[in-house]
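Entry 14. Ran structure prediction on the chain below.
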Amino acid sequence: LDPGVTRIEQFLAGMGISANARVTPLTPDASDRRYFRVEVAGIGVAGIASIVLAVHPGPIVYDEMPFADAHALLAAMPVPVPVVLGHSDELGIIALGDLGDVTLQAHLREVDDAERRRRYEEAVGHIVTLQVRGRELAASNRLPYRLAFDVEKLMFELRLFVEHFLEGWRQARLTAADRDTLEREFLAVAMELAAEPRVVCHRDYHSRNLMVLRGDLYLIDYQDARMGPDTYDLASLLRDSYVDLPEPLVDALVDVFLCATRTDVSAAARAEFVRRFDLMSVQRNLKALGTFGFQAGRKGNQAYVADMPRTLAHVRRNLARYSRFDALRRALAVHVEELV
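Output, structure tokens:
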């Protein structure tokens, strides 16, 4: 038997769940974890129809995991997150409440404009809670407060774009001048973003990490929560690689966020926030392209190729909007025709 299956059987036995329980593999994410749904109705977990198991490659120390720390923080705010039902350090398995299969991305395919706006206002509201309650609950012993999008982290992500998207996926042959330009322009972006006041960020807040269940919107995949610019999660949500949002809706949602977090909502203040939002979007979307290039080129996972054009369109629009990006756009357009 596959070692993962054997471990699952041992874990379920420890929870008092029958060996005959139906176990179904779920679509994997971009990590080395694997997920399984276990139907448990009437066989051991009272009142719960199914659970989800997060199966790690090997043993874990749950209390020292970033997930455990981030989960405790988000649950205390509270924002809607799955319930942790149990775990086994030895077996490397965590049992979670089942949030179903309907991501926000999937939900949007079946709804009208009013429902789409309602869901996105709800998602923006969760960002507000993360930032406001995150500030109130600040504690140096919690990992998310000790991690940050500093210059080093932001540059690491931008360099991954160069390595895995430009050179890897697109097979770009960068000259020394190209590299100097990209390093200089990326450093300017990273330094400005790192200097902004920091709030708690989910870190990967987009339509595939928000689940719709019984009328509520739940957050998942928050184990990398850390401090960063107040534009980070909003840029992830509204400049999503997986969903097209009309610009009037994006503008309206920016206003929703500003009204919830600012006393100064003047035209000048809004314009400055939008400038910072666009700057954050450039970094966030380039980082996403690096991830997509890695998954497609190194891992052979072609699922992300379809998301590259939308992400490149976000980058092109924002680079073209500001003269400060002229040198960066020229350097990238030589190798990425979509940015011309």
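The chain has a mean pLDDT of 94. Will compare against last week's run tomorrow.
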